[in-house]
Design brief:
single chain, about 140 residues, alpha+beta, 4-stranded antiparallel sheet, 3-stranded antiparallel sheet, 2 helices, elongated
């Protein structure tokens, strides 16, 4: 599972996912990318599940880049706990994803394989996604 080696603070405030992604919104490394169309918190487990699915389709012919990292701790209070008594204990890590953010990129595969790979991968994620191509490559 992905998680930071250390964090500055154990707990962080929730914040907002307002607006579109200002960074990481273009295909930089591969030929095709999976772009988020909705804002969400994507957990480390969801990223790992999507990565395994993507690697199964791409096999040894292509290369995969993960463009998001779960660096934000989220907390959860125990079940059947009354209101108050402070913030819950850290439960895991999430990546904050805004619309337009490229989540995964692949290289070394054709368009048909890329479509199949990203269709299976986006089913593992809690948001709607679409396939985008790098400039100069036939569009999806």
């Amino acid at each position: 599972m992905l998680q930071p080696a250390r964090t500055k603070f154990r707990k962080v405030q929730r914040g907002r996912m307002k607006g579109k992604a200002a960074r990481g919104n273009t295909v930089a490394f591969g030929d095709y990318g999976l772009m988020a169309l909705e804002p969400a918190w994507i957990t480390a487990n969801q990223i790992e599940s999507a990565r395994v699915t993507l690697n199964r389709v791409v096999r040894k012919t292509g290369k995969v880049w993960i463009r998001i990292f779960p660096d934000r701790p989220f907390t959860k209070k125990p079940a059947e706990t009354r209101m108050g008594s402070g913030k819950g204990a850290p439960e895991g890590f999430v990546a904050v994803v805004k619309p337009g953010r490229i989540i995964f990129e692949i290289n070394g595969v054709d368009l048909v394989t890329a479509k199949k790979a990203f269709a299976l991968t986006s089913a593992k994620l809690p948001i709607d996604c679409k396939l985008v191509a790098k400039d100069g490559v036939e569009s999806a």
